[in-house]
Amino acid sequence: MWCLVLAGDFRKDVDIIWGGDKAKILENGQAITLSLDKVSGSGFQSKAQFLFGKISMELKLVAGNSAGTVTSYYVASKGAMWDEIDFEFLGNLSGDPYTVHTYVITQGKGDREQQFRLWFDPTIDFHTYSILWNPKTIIFYVDGTPIRQFKNMKTMNVSYPVKQAMRVHSSLWNGDDWATRGGLVKTDWSKAPFTAYYRNYKVQDCVGSNVTCGGDGSSSWLKEGIDENNLKRLRWVQSNFMIYDYCNDPKRFR
User: Fold this and answer.
1) pTM for the structure as a whole
2) Which one from 58, 84, 224, 228 is the annotated catalytic residue?
3) What is the domain count for the chain?
4) What's the DSSP call for residue 233?
5) How far apart are CA 47 and CA 87, in angstroms?
6) Residue 73 maps to which CATH number?
7) Is residue 211 included in any domain, yes or no?
8) Torsion-angle region of 246 (φ positive above 0: left; ψ -120 to 50: alpha; else: beta)
9) What angle do CA 171, 150, 158 make, to 5 degrees?
10) Is residue 254 part of a domain?
11) pLDDT per position as a tens digit, 142-188
12) Which structural domain range is residue 68 located in?
């Protein structure tokens, strides 16, 4: 197995899979925009698929009254027993904060959501959102700060994605039946089109059949975890900005 560290060119690295010209590749392949109107949203997926990797992308989310909109950024496999690791950014009324909705699906089974507020306005400027997926752990990062960790605990009969290759996906779509205040606030189509912006797409992944990378330093993500400093940052986020944790929901899990 050998490792790749790729700074993305959207022209070469992704396919527009729906929405047609609502998805626009700009700046010589270094940026892409997705738009949503009442007719449809838009989305793209990576041409390559991989088993384990670290994916980073800078996003600037839909500004203004984004209630009802969902900007998703995730990795997923195919089939009825698919695996998925997901960021979803749930829009809100002007001046109200976005909700960052994260979840992990393994073998088609989900119910592992955690939700957060952000400590900044994600519509003013670009911020980096990263997904680390290696054999030991999954970590969600915002600007290098971990917000969630999902460890491989298969020894405790907790399923973990280790066998199915995944692609990177992103889309902008209408989720007003659930996204904002449980669906109470609907999308205001007079504000359309809604647009999200992407740039600096980077993928570190291993190509081959064995979970071993070379010693050039580019494969540090393969053994990456939460060190003491990042554990403090993770606890800070979860203490101050977590608004929902499936582990603490007695109505759903008794």
Assistant:
1) 0.91
2) 84
3) 1
4) H
5) 20
6) 2.60.120.200
7) no
8) alpha
9) 110
10) no
11) 999 999 999 999 888 889 999 999 999 999 999 999 888 888 899 99
12) 5-206+216-248
